[in-house]
Specification:
Structural class: alpha+beta
Mean pLDDT: 94
Number of domains: 2
Number of helices: 12
Order of helices and strands: HEHEEEHHEHHHHHHHH
Largest sheet: 5 strands, mixed
Strand order of the largest sheet: 3-4-2-1-5
Distance between the termini: 51 Å
Length: 249
């Protein structure tokens, strides 16, 4: 689809959002960056009038994603460890569509001025909590394998294979404008052992099921080793025991 057509659809959606009370709108993601593919969606952020997390619709041959938050909610996302890795680059590359009061411009400016510094301790605490929390998935994976419950084991393996990378992105302070880049960026940062374990856990080369599960447990060990210094004694004990049960400590 020609960029002009996508921009026309974005403007139509913006007009509807403004009529519903939006005070600003911005195009983000691949359509804003100019690297969209044939099936890339059209991502539009709205400032007000009310908050909703997500809405999808088909418009003119495109999948259109819209989300709305108050100005303060958008600003608060810059201080959330679980959000900053995508929110900051999103606003940095945003194409403002409607902004008579300057709300979107203010958010874009704040994103460009943003740095990890004020958020360092909060990010470290969040990473430690998340890695500790995934010890439960390790226990569930081991138990499921022992009981022959392969469907549950597959789910737990996949949770570890998919969800550890965003935590490591925060730990490594990696900003990514698209989740399509996330797993490769984390592999580049953490190293070849992580890359191999992640590939096997995802079954990219058709590995046997149990081998993919073992690789997911190795991913957890690598993540735990990376972040051990951030944990308190209680968290370390939870993680240590999970690794011992998994046999990958």
């Amino acid at each position: 689809m020609a960029p002009e057509r996508a921009r026309s659809i974005a403007q139509q959606v913006t007009e509807e959002l403004v009529e519903a009370g939006a005070r600003a709108t911005a195009l983000v993601g691949s359509r804003a960056r100019g690297d969209a593919g044939p099936e890339s969606d059209l991502d539009i952020l709205a400032v007000g009038p009310q908050s909703y997390s997500w809405n999808l619709q088909r418009r003119g041959g495109l999948l259109v994603s819209t989300s709305s938050k108050s100005f303060e909610e958008h600003r608060r996302a810059f201080a959330l460890p679980e959000a900053v890795c995508t929110v900051v680059p999103g606003w940095r590359g945003a194409v403002i569509l409607h902004d008579p009061e300057g709300f979107a411009a203010s958010l874009a400016r704040e994103a460009k001025e943003w740095s990890w510094g004020p958020l360092e301790r909060r990010c470290d605490a969040w990473v430690a909590e998340r890695i500790t929390g995934y010890a439960e998935e390790v226990h569930k994976l081991i138990t499921s394998l022992r009981n022959g419950n392969l469907s549950t084991a597959a789910v737990q393996r996949s949770l570890l294979a998919v969800h550890l990378a965003p935590v490591l992105a925060v730990h490594r302070r990696i900003l990514y404008g698209s989740e399509n880049l996330l797993w490769d960026l984390v592999s580049d940062a953490v190293g070849e052992e992580w890359r191999r374990a992640q590939s096997t856990a995802l079954g990219l080369d058709g590995e046997p099921f149990e081998e993919t599960c073992t690789a997911a447990l190795r991913l957890y060990r690598l993540a735990a080793t990376e972040t051990a210094s951030l944990m308190d004694d209680g968290q370390r004990e939870v993680v240590r025991y999970a690794l011992a049960v998994a046999g990958v400590g």
